[in-house]
Amino acid sequence: MTSAASLYIPAGSNKQSGAGGTAKDCLTFTERPITPPEVRKYRKSSYLEPGARFKHYGIVDDLKKMNLDEKTFGEFSDPGEGTAQDLINHKKLTLLQKIDLEKAEKCYKGTSREPLGKTYDRKVVLPEKHTKYGVPFGVTSKSSLEPAKGIIWPEISEETLAGEDLYRRSHGTWAAGEQKRRGYNWPLDPTAYRFGVKGDTIALNGVSKNVYDILHGAGDIPSCVNTKRVEDFRNMTHILGQTKNLGQNSSSRPFDTVYGKPSASGRATKGTWGAADVIKGAYSKEAQKPDADLGKSITPGFRNITLEDRAYGCPSIRTDLPAGPAARRSLADSQNYGDDVPAQDLINPPAFSDLAIAPTAMAELRPKQKIIDLFNKIGLSVEDQIADILFDEASGGREFCSVNSYRHALNRYLIALETNSLDVWYQEHNLL
User: Fold this and answer.
1) Alpha-carbon distance 233 to 227, whole Å?
2) What's the pLDDT score for residue 185?
3) What is the pLDDT of residues 248-296, one digit of tens each?
4) How far apart are CA 227 and CA 33, in angstroms?
5) Binning pLDDT at 50, 70 and 90, where does residue 158 land?
């Protein structure tokens, strides 16, 4: 085993370990070897230098051998004596020069067939009937009987005008921009006549200034003209008690118009139930009878034989138990004593229920003085003699009566007082 002393190298010693080196050798980097030329030509990275010409690997060796990089392909053009100014600004030829140019250009076939300023000459010789007698080309078709001029500018005849008038009356349509005329036989000119009463002042090309003030809301007069968007919103929105206007011109129909097709139940024969029968009910007496197994078992072997006419089980409405006052009944008491508020009172609550006054309070019997004091506090006080008569009528001669009975008697007296028929009321109560 090698000891630690054997690995120690004194300072300044040139001895190195087998695979190691000095710090200088570790920090000295040699140049990276370049790609061999036989491989470099196949790599695209060799031609990524800016401005370098891309060389196909198939002609790289040929470019070096033939020295093609220094050669220019093609021939040099003759600069000639002309300049760019001469090419842009042509010299104006004289008449003699023009004649010489035409003679020189006649040798070209295109010059003779396409002369300048003339159509292409195909050297076609047309028959004499087309050139001399003016016979048109092609075959006469049926549409040729109607000239194009008549189609573009048709002649308006009296028959055409009568047909247009008949079409207006039958279809109720007018041309674009045409004023609708209903053919009234008026003894006046509707285009020049103005209807209505003339205002105080005439202004604005004959339009009354009062009308102008109303339309534009001048002064304290509010404007009665709205934008089309506001009017459409008013006409198309939901209106209480009316169907929504969907723009189908349904406003002209009667209010009791029924839309749609009758359902099968509406045309059904007798015996078929409709929606009204389902809501109201149309049960026969046999269907309204209680079920045969109500309160007893009709299954053989499970019947309770008894000599008493009774029903087994606990009834849902406990009439067999004493029911205490409703005001002092416990909230934990879930028994139904038959005096609970029905569902009708939840949907249509009775009068004065918001004041915690039960309907039985109006039918509760009270003494005479308490009844009279109660009506005096609400402003319905009458004379003592009249009050005695009203109480006797409401109580039937007894010592107690209810608020409802006294109110009915008082209403009859007040009606007679308002209708000036107290004499009849006095005769009925033997006061005359």
Assistant:
1) 10
2) 82
3) 666 566 667 777 777 665 544 556 777 777 787 777 888 888 888 887 7
4) 87
5) confident
Mean pLDDT, range 175-201, rounded to an integer: 75
Exposed (0-12), middle (13-18) or buried (19+): which is 212, by Cβ within 10 Å?
middle
pLDDT at 9: 40
Mean pLDDT of the chain: 77
User: 410: how many CB neighbours lie within 10 A of its CB?
Assistant: 19
- Extract the runs of DSSP E, i.e. beta strands, from 206-339: 207-208
Percent with pLDDT over 90 in the chain: 2
Widest pairwise Cα distance in the chain: 159
Rounded Cα distance between 105 and 111, Å, is 7
Element (H, E) at 23: helix 23-27
DSSP class of residue 261 equals P
> Do 319 and 337 contact (CB within 8 A), yes or no?
yes
Measured CA to CA, the distance from residue 34 to residue 397 in angstroms comes to 137
Structure token pair of residue 28: 């000295």
Rounded distance between C-alpha atoms, residue 111 and residue 121, angstroms:
10
The pair phi, psi for residue 203, each rounded to 5°, is: -150, 180
Q: How many CB atoms lie within 10 A of CB 393?
A: 19
Token pair of 430, please?
């033997």
CB neighbours of 292 closer than 8 A, spacing ≥ 6? 298
CA distance to 237, 251, 259, 261, 431, per residue, from 244 (Å): 6, 10, 14, 20, 62
Contact 366/401 with Cβ under 8 angstroms?
Answer: yes
C-alpha span between 362 and 402 (Å, rounded): 6
